[in-house]
Amino acid sequence: MKAFQVVKKEHLSEQVWRMKIFAPHIAKKHKAGQFVILRVEEKGERIPLTVADSDSKAGVITLIFQVVGATTHKLSCLKEGDCLRDLVGPLGTPTHIEKYGSVVAVGGGIGIAPLYPIVKALKAAGNRLIGILGARTKSLLILEEEMRALMDETLISTDDGSYGERGVVTDVLKRLKERGEKIDLVIAIGPAIMMKFVCALTAEYKLPTLVSLNPIMVDGTGMCGACRVEIGGETKFACVDGPEFDGHKVNWDLLMKRLRFYNEQEKVSYELAKKCTCGGD
Amino acid sequence: MAKKIEPRVPMPEQSPKERIRNFNEVPYGYTPEMAKKEASRCLQCKKPKCVSGCPVEINIPSFIGLVKEGDFGGAIKKIKETNLLPAICGRVCPQETQCEEVCVLAKNGQPVAIGRLERFCADWERSLGEEKISLPKCAPPTGKKVAVVGAGPAGLTVASDLAKLGHKVTIFEALHKPGGVLVYGIPEFRLPKEIVFAEVRILQKLGVELITNYIVGKTETVDELLERYDAVFIGTGAGAPAFMRIPGENLGGIYSANEYLTRSNLMKAYLFPETDTPIHRGKVVAVIGGGNVAMDSARTALRLGAERVLLIYRRTREEMPARAEEVHHAEEEGVEFHFLTNPVRYHGDEKGNVKEMECLKMRLGEPDSSGRPRPVPIENSNFRLSVDTVIVAIGNLANPIVPKSTPNLTVNKNGNIVADEDGRTSREGVFAGGDIVTGAATVISAMGAGRRAARAIHSYIMEKSSR
Ligand SMILES: Cc1cc2nc3c(=O)[nH]c(=O)nc-3n(C[C@H](O)[C@H](O)[C@H](O)COP(=O)(O)OP(=O)(O)OC[C@H]3O[C@@H](n4cnc5c(N)ncnc54)[C@H](O)[C@@H]3O)c2cc1C
Ligand code: SF4
Ligand code: FES
């Protein structure tokens, strides 16, 4: 097998793909919470993606991504047997895993993918796990089976009510709290706006909350500072100091504004990428 | 000494007006006639001062003598006896503070253009075609293996020297391309990347293995490398950007020079949308700092279409650490210099992007630890400048990934790895050199450190095996 070769590609939902990639060095070292940076082709951008799973015996890592721009579009066009141009990792500080007791894992949309390896590690450490999985609509919900297999209890919400409860993940969390559930830690991964609201709620409940941030990155090694985030008023580089942080200290508005900085250009390159129709299915 | 000394032969270059619209190299280089003419200015001193000014002690009068005779092949051989990367050094070395500063002719105003001649020789050889470049001889294989961490000038030099001594060398590089700052930092218009890649290909022909996308400390630790290799050299550079930690510095449109230059150089964002990596093409760009990195950022901003580029420096022209030639080029191209000025805060618009920079006026005070006069803020001198992009180029710190993941590797208070003259660190079998040891310095000093470390590594592994 060649380095960075796509060994398996599956459609998980509309616009969401799961790819297994041959990368033995990364598979061997990967720990929950870490990510990789990849480039699909020579003219491509470097983008970070969380490693959703790894198999050190097979030398394979799993990436789950949603097509949202040029790079993810090009990635989705790769077929089994094709190779990524570049892949580097594992990057970032791994999640601190210990026996916390009862952990609520909140995943929104594509955020369920990075949540998965963390839940897996927390399970192995003997934690009781309650999952709250949210999606806009039923067809966009990913990894439900895999998550259910790890959770002691799984609650689902969709914005349109097509599956599980109608509403957002914070509604479910509220109800969980109201029923008197003892919670030692909340981990929330999803769109920034979701994490912001989860944190606002858990701050009221005084529940320690971990989040995983997804700012724009270039090198992923602390060399450029593109990934600056503010944590408790202090500037941190998410690629090396994170990507996980205490959710109650994150400056969410800054994160969301910085994420939008290249919106115009991103649209342009996405449109161009889409014009090139490829062999992807 | 009655002989009149001719003035320096100027090097032709793109006009400022033309060049700020492209990323092509600014100078065209000497023609053979120009080179011979300039070479004939050299006095062939018996005790050449220039050589002592050169960090790698190139036999300068000797190579210049060969240029004068038109033996360009002989000249480049002479240079390469001590300098591995002349096409690069001829372009980026600060000759005006090294060989050319002490050239005897400097007293009369115009030293021999040693750097331009070095560049000429290297370019002449490259123009023959890569396959014609004669490879240095390698000693028979020793069976020893060395891992080099980082493919910047320090790492490349170590790799080359050890390969010539017959050792098997593997370079591990974090980024997807080799070259270090030469590729991600220094812009194309000052150092065409193809020159660096050609040098790396020569290394590979010598049997050096290059593995990109490999972060030592993450993908594999130094201790794990030591299980597979007889020695490890760390040449990871000074790759962590310093910020001023002033309010508003995280607004959109405020970049570290590293990010701005990496987007443009490594990721080729100047070709967007032909390439996918975006960069903000600001109209009014402020660059904070007075070094080479600031000049490169300012000149890149102009080429990306800025209407005005303001260079903000807290001291005066005299204290600017940038090379004279770069300051001159920046000025010719229209960069506006604002001396004795320091930003204190940024103001943003409703989208969270920078729109104004608030500055203080400064004056020069007593000398500080660096020996330069300390800039002292003048109270209540605040004023605002409208800007839409800011590039912070106030220096680079040591990247902690390797030290943090390597137990008992001693670092100083700035996070730089502590190493002796020959690169020996606190860990047996682990050597280091270049910016990771000295803090941000120069290409040639990183190469010099690499050369000394290669010698020390050679004796270490040979002694170890005879023990
Ligand atoms: C914009 C700019 C302009 C400059 N202009 C000049 C000039 O005109 N003249 C001059 O003499 N000097 C100049 N310098 C300084 C000069 O480039 C540096 O001093 C020199 O490159 C240092 O060489 P190095 O080999 O120590 O490190 P670098 O060139 O920084 O190379 C280090 C390499 O190591 C890699 N690396 C880092 N960490 C790891 C890891 N954990 N695992 C694997 N690889 C890793 C990096 O990606 C990089 O490729 C300039 C610097 C900058 C930033
Ligand atoms: S000091 Fe100047 S004149 Fe003398 S040998 Fe060196 S380059 Fe030639
Ligand atoms: S992505 Fe460059 S420092 Fe984090």
> Percentage of helical residues of chain A?
25-40%
Q: What shape does the CA trace of chain B take? A: globular
| Head-to-tail CA distance between termini of chain B | 59 Å
**Low-pLDDT sequence parts of chain A:** none
Strand order of the largest sheet of chain A: 10-9-8-7-11-12-15
Q: Could you name the CATH homologous superfamily of the largest domain in chain A?
A: Nucleotide-binding domain of ferredoxin-NADP reductase (FNR) module
Strands of chain B, total number: 16
Q: How far apart lie the N and C ends of chain A?
A: 23 Å
Topology pattern of chain A, helix = H, strand = E:
EEHEEEHEEHEHEEHEHEEEHEHH
Number of helices of chain A: 9
Largest beta sheet of chain B: what is the strand line-up?
Answer: 3-2-1-4-16
Q: Total strand count of chain A, please?
A: 15
CATH class of the largest domain in chain A: Alpha Beta
CATH architecture term of the largest domain in chain A: 3-Layer(aba) Sandwich
Radius of gyration of chain A: 18 Å
**Overall pLDDT metric of chain B:** 93
For the report, how would you describe the main beta sheet of chain B? 5 strands, parallel
The protein's oligomeric status is heterodimer
What count of helical segments of chain B does DSSP give? 18
How is this fold's topology laid out?
The complex is a heterodimer of chains A (281) and B (467).
Chain A: E1 6-13, E2 16-22, H1 24-29, E3 35-39, E4 47-55, E5 60-66, H2 70-77, E6 86-91, E7 102-108, H3 112-124, E8 128-135, H4 144-150, E9 153-158, E10 165-166, H5 169-178, E11 185-189, H6 192-205, E12 209-212, E13 228-231, E14 234-237, H7 238-241, E15 244-246, H8 252-259, H9 263-275
Parallel strand pairs in A: 7-8, 7-11, 8-9, 9-10, 11-12
Antiparallel strand pairs in A: 1-2, 2-5, 3-4, 3-6, 4-5, 12-15, 13-14
Chain B: H1 16-19, H2 32-39, H3 49-53, H4 60-68, H5 72-80, H6 86-92, H7 99-102, H8 114-127, E1 145-149, H9 153-164, E2 168-172, H10 181-184, H11 193-205, E3 209-211, H12 222-228, E4 231-234, E5 240-241, E6 254-256, H13 257-266, E7 284-288, H14 292-303, E8 308-312, H15 324-332, E9 336-338, E10 341-348, E11 354-367, E12 373-377, E13 383-386, E14 389-392, E15 396-397, H16 401-405, E16 430-432, H17 435-438, H18 443-466
Parallel strand pairs in B: 1-2, 1-4, 2-3, 4-16, 6-14, 7-8, 7-14, 8-9
Antiparallel strand pairs in B: 5-15, 10-11, 11-12, 11-13
The complex binds flavin-adenine dinucleotide, iron/sulfur cluster and FE2/S2 (inorganic) cluster.
